[in-house]
């Protein structure tokens, strides 16, 4: 079975063979997510792949849905830090985004769904109060992976074929940018580009305390034909990803030698657990975790999903029940 997925700390045991999925020989292709998503959604090239949660939900609307996901979340991220502004645009707080021109790589990008929902729910920025410009961040030509049909009050326009969102943000052609990737001018310290929220650790910790949401970005999806031939594979893969996650979570406590190039790693681990609890990167569908239900509501409210899905409808049923002995 071919698996396309970034080489995350929580999935590396599957790449190295330290964890094996029962009954499956995995050919792990470590790939950048944008390439993985494009090749899986457009061409179904892999048996299993990491997939954008948002794009996956959109594929469920096809007459013959091509994928079935398991509730494994290789990527989760708070997204307050993904809102960038042109510092000359006069955007001092979230409310100043109303009526502005905002760049997004694609309207359906999971990070943008979370950002729009969060801004609407918590900061009084309705989704339709912003004009959206879509296109490539650093290279021109990016388009929506999955076709979308939006409500008439949502204004989304692709940028020109020779433009990039980063160039437009720097020049002031757009006022702000919602992006899962950091724009290069911000990395370079360009004073024309800043973040909307400056104190990210405090802002995001408070968001979690109030909502109990740690946003899910990606799921793991099987091609439907692979799943239909061998439905047991869904549970076998889920168990393997869970074991790899558990090993990684346990290893992060090792203090004899730093496992990662972060000098204050242990302090950050302790701070994270103080805010979010010990098991903060959970897989599976849990009735006490509002994250998935909130995302599905956002997708529906924003005109992407044409029906309101529930979390247990979008995953392989074999992964939803635990075996009790």
Task: Kindly describe this structure.
The structure is a single chain. With 325 residues, the protein is α/β, with parallel strands linked by helices. Helix content is 34%, strand content 16%. Strand 1, helix 1 (12-16) and strand 2 (27-30) form a beta-alpha-beta unit. Helix 4 (110-123) crosses helix 11.
Provide the succession of SSEs: EHEHEHEEEHEEHEHEHEHHHH
Radius of gyration: 20 Å
Shape: globular
Which range best describes the helical content: under 10%, 10-25%, 25-40%, 40-55%, 55-70% or over 70%? 25-40%
Q: Strand order, biggest sheet?
A: 8-7-6-9-5-10
Give the terminus-to-terminus CA distance: 30 Å
Summarize the helices and strands and which ones pair or pack.
Blueprint: E1 2-5, H1 12-16, E2 27-30, H2 33-43, E3 48-52, H3 53-59, E4 67-76, E5 83-86, E6 101-104, H4 110-123, E7 131-134, E8 155-158, H5 165-171, E9 176-178, H6 184-187, E10 193-195, H7 200-211, E11 216-223, H8 224-229, H9 232-251, H10 265-276, H11 291-301
Parallel strand pairs: 1-2, 1-3, 6-7, 6-9, 7-8
Antiparallel strand pairs: 3-11, 4-11, 5-9, 5-10
Helix pairs in contact: 4-11
